[in-house]
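S., here's the first fold you wanted:
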Amino acid sequence: MVPNNPVRIIEAFVDELDLGALGFAGVVPEVTGRPSYHPATLLKIYIYGYLNRVPSSRRLERETQRNLELMWLTGRLMPDFKTIADFRRDNGPAIRAACAQFIGLCRQLNLFTQAVVALDGSKFKAVNNRDKNFTVTKVAKRIEQVEAGIARYLAALDRADRQGGAETEAKTARLKQKIAGLRRAMQSLKEMQQQVEAAPDQQISLTDPDARSMATSGKGTGIVGYNVQMAVEAEHHLIVAHEVTNVGNDRTQLLAMGRQAQDVMGCAEITVLADRGYYNGDEVLACEHSGVLPYVPKTQTSGNSNRGLFTGHDFVYDAEHDRYTCPAGQHLTKGKLRSDRQDTIDHYRNLTACPSCSLKPQCTPDKHRRVKRWEHEDVLDRMQARLERMPEAMLIRRQTVEHPFGTIKAWMGSTHFLMKTLEKVKTGMSLHVLAYNLKRMINILGVRPLLRALAV
């Protein structure tokens, strides 16, 4: 094997791991019986496979029998696909820990000199067809479709009875069979409806029970899958933290992913760049004084701009006097709390100036314009000020974090995860992340310098 072949890095990395401390089973062979394959051999096979877009255990079995690089890496050992698949299934936490070990190596090489990470989430398909996923809305829609089908066939049966003729009997029998089939389907849907309504999140997936229906950007293009979160450092574009969840949005991931990246990089304070999907006042507030400095654009939820009305940005807050100044130059002051309002939201208005204001047609169709302010709005204002001082933040975020997602999905062949349930999917994703980071390190340092670093 030539000295600069990347397969040598896989061997050096795995050989340096303390597999027993990481939790791999079978490190010490049993006293009796035939010894099993050492976990180092199977881990090398998987890292090589994911690095070369061969994640399937059956395909890896074939590769160990014909691929010269893999023969050299395993010492010509050729485990069957069941042994390879069982290793990935049974050693999930240890495989994820090995992925974290490689990030620790990157930290030792002082590659994390900039405490800036970009955060994003992307939907990955699960081993679960959309037809095998049920929600309250989906079940109701399918029941409606079956009812319409039964009504259509009953009408056709009635017409066939009135027409008569030689073919009527055969046609009637076929229609009765179809009606009976639809009624059985209706009974199954009624039972599924009860199960869905009793489920904690009112959703059931039959093939992969942990997979969930998730909306995507295109209309009608939702998938059943998982939401993969990644934090990518901005200098070398290495994935420093990742997580797999079956929650379909990113609203509650800002602090958790920020802290995870902070711990991995060993920084007292870390800058986190994220898109509007992460905008959540409670999450931003929780980041305060935690060492996580978020840069998240505010979500535009108001429809006033589309209606040609002033938006909240047109009202300037005066912290000293605790009031807003409207586009007409009038001051909106805080009103008294009402029992039907949230205790954490203040309402500002000017009951005197609004009715006679010349700009009222451009401001509000109501009697008075009200501006809402959260009691911790100053935290969001400080974040907005940071964004204004760093106008390139979202460009850096996009250039940093979207490339790893696109690369890993291309390696997967734009298909689904090979494993089922959340814990096993996390293992598969950790292997993808480890392969991506290995390839990034080879491109950054080269094979021989990386080998020397692993030998230290």
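And the second, which I think is the more interesting of the pair:
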Amino acid sequence: MKTLCSLSECSQRRYHYININKTWTEAQRYCRENYTDLATVNNINDMNELKKTVNNNQKVWIGLKRTDVYKWKWSLGDPVKYLNWETEPSNDTNNCAVMRNGTWLQQGCNVNMSLICYNGASKDLIICQAQTLILSCDEGTLQILSANYGRIDAQTCSTGRPHEQLLKERCSQNRSLTVATLCDGQKSCSLVVSDAVFTNPCPAYYKYLTVSYECVAAPPNSSKAYITDPYKTWREAQSFCRQYHTDLISVRNQTDNQLIHNIINDTETSVWIGLFRDSWEWSDNTDSAFRYWSSGEPGHFGGSEDCTEVRMNDQVQWYDARCSNSNTFVCHENELVLIQKNLSWTEAVRYCRENHVDLVSVDSEKIQLWVTAAVHEASTAEVWLGLHYYCLMNLWIWVRGEVVCYQNWAPGVQIQLKDCSGEHRAGAVQSGGDHMWISLPRSHKLNFICTTNKELCHCLSLSVM
């Protein structure tokens, strides 16, 4: 399983609060005419940005609307390309999925089941008592940097626990040696967080383990962690995983499926995975599966509540509502725009400057992730970037004169050109695969990406005379 900063964690949208009351359809039209669309929300970070943008207690429209078509989606937002149903799913109301003995079954979402959380880019984990922790490295081996067991505050791992189990503070003890003995030098390791493993630093209190680790002799993002926990409904499991880890687990291929089957290690146990089914779609057709419904929502009262409003109170949760209601609303504006026209590199530069700001300069991993999301709908195998080779100085520079301070070249690409007598070359990103950069003659006709934000580039500029 390849672990990257999630695309949804690196949102390339800017939110704009419109303090005018309109119906959902009127708000959608306004956003499309003046920005990109009604707001799409990809994750809890987006929710926090939305709250800061609105900064009042209004009800606001976002772009989520009910349709007639139910689709299966991953809670984490991954595309659903791999399925492993024991039997083909029916059209009943069992809209969540479990894994049992390596295959998937439909299940009602309100049943209490075990769960598996996925922890992505973070290498600092919190695992509550009685949960199982699985650490793994795609490459290299594990090295435990620190581990502490106990309790140092009353909030962490407090959900559903009686108050008297949370009162004790500052009773944590260093257990780095215990975890290191089990995990150091291994490709993967697992342990149950319990007094039996770590001894009991504060009897009668509910505790948790904090672990910091890394994968030694490995490239970045090669680490991953899984946390199992017993008995929650699907919605409770999703909320728990998002609060303490990344999300419920996605199963993206047969390798993932076998790994999770091995983690469960019980042919009779059913475990929640992050797959769910609903009929809600975003106005901009984004695949985001993030939902933040209030308890009991969506209720579909009277069969006519088909749009989504966010109530900007302390909880900032979502409610379905009649689309004919009148609310203020939030639009979003994309930082990057994929243009599905086939133009040469020079023509693409001209188009972006006339219609937006410029061809995109990719000066960081964050913007590379934005580009990766943008090229998803490209109709050409490569997509132009604002990168070109400046022969007089024998180096690659961005179209606005910035030096290349972040690179993502594909293996084997000839970066230094010994002969500049041929056709000038420019940089493009692969629209499939690992989305790496390649060098092509500027005359090739490709899709391209424009930026809409003049402040997007941060690299040092190079004056080119």
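Why I say that: Residues 122-220 form a domain with the Jelly Rolls fold (CATH 2.60.120.740). The chain has three domains: 1-117+233-334, 122-220, 337-451.

Talk tomorrow,
H.
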